[in-house]
Fold Bacterial leucyl aminopeptidase.
Amino acid sequence: MIATQLGAVYPNKYIVVGGHFDSTSYDEDAPGADDNASGTAGVIEIARILSQKLFNYTIIYCAWSAEEIGLVGSGEWAGNAADAGMDIVGYLNLDMIGYLQEGSDYHTDMMAPSSAQPLVDLYETVVGLYVTDFAVNEGTLIGGDSDHTSFNNNGFMGIFPFEDSENYSPHIHSDNDLIGPSVNNPTLAQKFTQAGVAFVATAAELFNGLYPPMELALVQNENNVDLNWSTPVDGTTNFEAYHVYRNDEIIATINNIDDTVYVDNTIQNGVTYNYYVTAAYTGENGGESNPSNTVSVTMGLMQTHFWDFEDGTQGWTIKDDNTGWRWGVPVNLSGNNTNYLSTDSDDVGSGTHVVDYAISPEIDLSIYSVAYLEFDYGWRDYSSDEFSVVYRTSPGDAWITLEALSSTSGFTTHNIELPEAALTATAQLAFYYDDNDTWAWYNAVDNVKIIAAEQTSVLEIPQNLTGEAIEDHIHLEWNPVSDSGFVAYNIYRDDAQVHNISNIDETTYDDIQNLTDGQTYTYYISATYAEGESGQSNEVSVTYDPIGTGELQNRTVSVYPNPLPQGQNIRYTAAATIESVTIYDLAGRVVATTKVNQPTGQVATAHLKPGMYLLKINTTEHHTLKKLHITAH
């Protein structure tokens, strides 16, 4: 049974929550109270609560059939979802949530492969915030499985918070799986459900009524990054500006809703940049939207090392016998018909301990600021064996685990960012396998790559240049640069330098030079350092209009005191009757507003923190904008 709650912003991105509704028994009856009426009821309760709200992402609620005979229902659905290319952000599984061993604290044992760690982290975070007396412990599933595996096996992330991996209900799969002996703690089931509500609501993102920019995309060029996006799906009303964020800091503000392109020229090789864009709206219900999707890039990445093992081990050290890694011996994993490294505990059977490191040659990683290990691997595990990626800073040092790998149904490509500690001149990487002296299965590794970038030093470029025509001049503002070697800001108009400023904190300029009515001027700025001149900032184009079409002239309005000490009221006077005064913060959110209907008045600002604000004064037909600086006592 499937129920779909359509997302308001990203209807084609999905959060899935489910549990199986079938039960089985070794006896005549199979009531299945804990396994899994408890989980199914939890899914239904989550749906009841969340269906009353609107979310950015689509939520799919599922009750699976035939889990007890091999994950049949969820396996079929997840396989079809993968074939259809569904963008499933994550899956939460509810299976057996009602039994608590006497004397135990409220907790869950988390079952998830390492590939689903981002979902585990999110679950732990929301439980810590909203269900504070519900511990999340690491668990190991022995002798069974559940529907989260269907999602992990099809390339999605799935997690399974379980009542207890060792002390679960002893009554499942019997006619005693009843409320009372088996579902013996309704409060535990409630906590599982509360955690599920918090997790799904957080992952699906509650819609705040403000539509974000859509479909942010990135193009990496040699010396810059091009960003482009689509306008909000329903965001034309009261639109004010786009805010472009890089690594969670605003680097540009764009005031035209149709201007959906930004070029970031302030980049360095070897640095990873994460971008997103928001939309700011005015009005009574205005503010800043949720972020768009995030796009990321690491500049200057290139493949520096590659081992395909076609003609041998290519410098890698292995045992090359049936007690460890072997070269050129195929195992029963789909997706690769070439030579590779493999182990096969199943082939040698019990009595032979298969354990070995496949060790790389020494690699000089010291010249790189960032490096990734990419490889193809496959592993059919047997719960008792282990397979991991490790490194050491030089031969003879102790191995340090990078990541414990997850089982797969065939070869898959995997990527790991190497920690800074691994970037030495004598680094070694290895794939470690140990069947722990049990009769296990097999694994393989192929096409190992190092992808890295050298860090380059570039001169910092001034950010977030803005411009506007005010009375008899054009006013420019920008964000300051750091003070390392700074000499001057250079102001360019129509590609010709018109001014320079030697004070690093002076980040405004009023252009009054030979301005022509109705003409549009294009500006950018740079910074000069002891080492030379930086690249150019973003460009802004401003049409000079000294009369002021549709705007109340600034010289007819007085705002005082400005700067304003924190706690005082801002006062204003004008030559015309003022209808309203609104104060915005730099994110475009309304922080104060008042109705006036007279040419003078004041606005209380005691609740505002020190900082920069924008004051908008409206008359019947015109408006003017003033920057307001509130200072600390």
Summary: The helical segments are 33-50, 72-83, 117-130, 148-152, 186-204, 345-348. Residues 2-204 form a domain with the Aminopeptidase fold (CATH 3.40.630.10). The CA atoms of residues 122 and 199 lie 7 Å apart. Residues 547-555 have pLDDT under 50 and may be disordered.
